Amino acid sequence: MTTTHVRAACPHDCPDTCALIVTVEDGVATEVKGDPGHPTTAGVLCTKVARYAERTYHPDRLLYPLRRVGPKGEGKFERIGWDEALDAIAARLKPIAARAPEAILPYSYCGTMGLVQGESMSSRFFHKLGASLLDRTICASAGATGYKYTVGASVGTDMEQFQHAKLILIWGGNPIASNLHFWTRAQAAKRNGAKLIAIDPYRSLTAEKCHQHIALLPGTDAALALGMMHVLIAEDLLDHDYIAQYTQGFEQLKGRAAEWTPERVAETCGITVAEVVELARLYGRMARDGEPVAIRANYGVQRVRGGGMAVRNIACLPALVGAWRHPAGGMQLSSSGSFPTNKPALQRPDLLPDAGKPPRTINMSTIGDDLLRAASPEFGPQVEAVIVYNANPLAIAPDSSKVAAGFAREDLFTVVLEHFQTDTADYADIVLPATTQLEHVDTHTSYGHLYMMANNAAIAPMGEAKANTEIFRLLAARMGMDDPCFRESDDELAAQAFDKRDARAVHFDWEALKQKGWQRLDMPDAPFARGGFPTPSGKCEFYSERMLADGLDPLPAYIAPYESRASNPELAAKYPLAMISPPARNFLNSSFVNVTSLRATEGEPHLDIHPGDGAARGIADGDMVRIYNDRGSFVCKARVTDKARRGLVVGLSVWWKKLAGDGKNANEVTSQRLTDMGRAPTFYDTLVQVEKAA
Ligand SMILES: Nc1nc2c(c(=O)[nH]1)N[C@H]1C(S)=C(S)[C@@H](COP(=O)(O)OP(=O)(O)OC[C@H]3O[C@@H](n4cnc5c(=O)[nH]c(N)nc54)[C@H](O)[C@@H]3O)O[C@H]1N2
Ligand SMILES: Nc1nc2c(c(=O)[nH]1)N[C@H]1C(S)=C(S)[C@@H](COP(=O)(O)OP(=O)(O)OC[C@H]3O[C@@H](n4cnc5c(=O)[nH]c(N)nc54)[C@H](O)[C@@H]3O)O[C@H]1N2
Ligand code: SF4
Ligand SMILES: [Mo]
């Protein structure tokens, strides 16, 4: 028997981007472990990816191209050959491309975060076609935009510093489920005497283990941050020197913060005045005493109407108290902006038919409406063909009944590149089998740590599966695209992924990275200790000219949810409960739902409801309940628990619809309305009613 150990990287949409070591025995991957040498992975994987071999060798893996033989959505397919599949796709796409290339739409997200198997050969293909561009907003663009206006780029506190913090605000995140290796460091900080505070409407696994939990109403974080500013300013818990040297707009901010008294904030957030005041005092006093105070904000805060502003307001706090001076102080939302990736080289926007007039852009978060839209001068041509890869829109996109109706259109041609027969694949005309991370080459950034990562192929492709890149190479050839860039190998692509001219990536060398597995960026310990914010002014912008130019309030503000008791009492009279649907620990968005052992651990779809709200509706623990609003409904099992505050219900997500009881999931009731900035979805801005199911 020959045994090898292959260096790989976790491809999933998770900030931790773990370094993996894959044991291969006679060509079979027998074990996937965390690399003990990688500083943040430290030999530990989450429950999901520890099962990566189970997912790769799953009996339901798609191994051959398939053609649909039943109605859309039913899931009846027959096996065909690759030539037949590629010819069928080219035959449908060619006339559309000749007539109206924008009627062709790619739909992809982060099924893999790889720079090669994500947007490289695929983008080249769609650019050359002149297909519609896709606005990839489904996850992070609201918060990223708010952070960018304020701090300049997705750069923040190094994950490897958090164990030295003395106060950590875990704001809108549940790291035990979704950012495990950060949680390890938060626990180390706790052992060193740090205080951990969770700010979250729900008593998540993480909130349960923090010293304090502030259970505010969803979508009200911007007000809490304004209240903290109010107290910091009123009690002079400020770093005047840092403010004077490295920030812009403090005088204007003072005026705005003055409006947000702790009483007004407490009322808005549904918490006590003492919670507001004491949080601000603790944060400000510890910073004044020179202790590192850190904020780990996550995307849970920004899936509401005012999500961009919420992140912006939170991002003002570290500059007010000078927390950035310390490597373990400051804030992290994402580290993605630290990586000098060379996207133009990978994606080749120069291939567009007319660079001066780019194709229209379609927002992935409104795919339901956009697939149902007729041609018009504003919209352009009706969408006639969709090519889905690295995404499962039928399960994950909001307002799911519209998404399903769109994909069910008889005149729509749909191709899905997948590992499994997902809810989306059921609507495909042609399904193409894709390789998993064990079967292909890739390179990765991270949105939690600061290492460039390599993924070597550990095993040969399963069945007739092909890498996304190879599928787009073959499609390009079938469509008659003969530019040499469509013949570049995955290694050639990976070698272009980082811009070596940037000081942070001078140590990037693809062959060396493949050998070692990972390489840290050249970055300072404390990115903004002496200012140097990548904003237009070079300062942390409390007042933002760019926001003003973009039609937004230039100062931190509070934007109430679309759907809440306070902002929309009429709607709340019909649908009085706020629903959020954050990530389940054993799934990764909708990935892994079909892995039997992980689904068994999650059990079945649940809705957590407060005992008071349960009693008012005659709902007992374990009852089947129907959750509904004007957009739709779904059924699942109630868990009566005070983990959900009064007025809030929580359905951990994202279930495959066909593996849930009634073939529906939480996205039946979520809406396609977009956030204040970043054109992002408002998954956690949803009012519903709940009743006992018949
Ligand atoms: N196990 C697992 N890990 C994952 C994922 C997964 O599905 N499963 N998904 C991955 C992805 S794609 C992402 S984007 C990341 C991060 O994904 P996030 O969406 O940030 O998810 P969480 O870290 O679970 O934190 C969300 C927390 O925010 C809380 N929350 C909801 N609304 C509000 C609000 O208005 N205010 C505040 N303060 N809190 C609110 C929720 O109750 C929840 O506990 O996680 C990644 N990691
Ligand atoms: N209600 C609700 N909805 C949500 C969220 C929520 O919190 N609540 N979270 C939102 C967030 S944060 C996100 S990021 C989105 C995520 O939405 P998606 O990015 O669509 O993520 P997944 O559901 O994991 O689906 C990814 C698919 O890609 C496939 N895949 C993986 N690797 C490859 C590959 O190499 N090639 C090909 N062809 N396919 C591959 C996987 O098998 C999987 O089916 O969901 C959003 N939807
Ligand atoms: S999903 Fe996250 S925690 Fe799990 S192995 Fe991948 S990167 Fe690590
Ligand atoms: Mo996400």
Automatic annotation (TrEMBL):
Family assignment from sequence similarity: Belongs to the prokaryotic molybdopterin-containing oxidoreductase family.
InterPro entries (UniProt xref): Asp_de-COase-like_dom_sf, MoPterin_dinucl-bd_dom, Mopterin_OxRdtase, Mopterin_OxRdtase_4Fe-4S_dom, Mopterin_OxRdtase_prok_CS, Prok_Mopterin_Oxidored, YoaE_C
Superkingdom of origin organism: Bacteria
Cofactor(s) essential for the protein: Mo-bis(molybdopterin guanine dinucleotide)
CDD domains hit by this protein: MopB_3, MopB_CT_3
Gene3D superfamilies named among the record's database cross-references: 2.40.40.20, 3.40.50.740, ADC-like domains, Dimethylsulfoxide Reductase, domain 2, Formate dehydrogenase/DMSO reductase
Taxonomic placement: Bacteria, Pseudomonadati, Pseudomonadota, Betaproteobacteria, Burkholderiales
SMART domains documented for this protein: Molybdop_Fe4S4
Transmembrane segments: none
Protein name: Anaerobic selenocysteine-containing dehydrogenase
Assigned keywords, A-Z: Iron, Iron-sulfur, Metal-binding, Molybdenum, Oxidoreductase
4Fe-4S Mo/W bis-MGD-type domain ranges (all copies): 3-60
Region (Disordered), start-end ranges: 334-359
One Gene Ontology term of the molecular function aspect: iron-sulfur cluster binding
